[in-house]
Amino acid sequence: MVTGRITEIGAVVEAAPGLLIEAPTTAAGLPPGGSVNINGTCLSATAVDRDAGRFRVDGERGGPLRSGSGRPGRLPAAHR
Question: What is the pTM of this model?
């Protein structure tokens, strides 16, 4: 169940392929294939390690990630 509460502020490390977001607290409880809400967009993890998750981004439709939050160095908010 999504609570809408921000659980962590992460950092975009890479923007391609997909988004690599460093967020240790979120990554610790996220299995590959699990979903997390990043800046208002639900993304599925394609790979997870202890400090970061890689998320597939397809079909960009002008949602919140197009505002520039998906560029390296930006600080995305993770919601659960």
Answer: 0.69
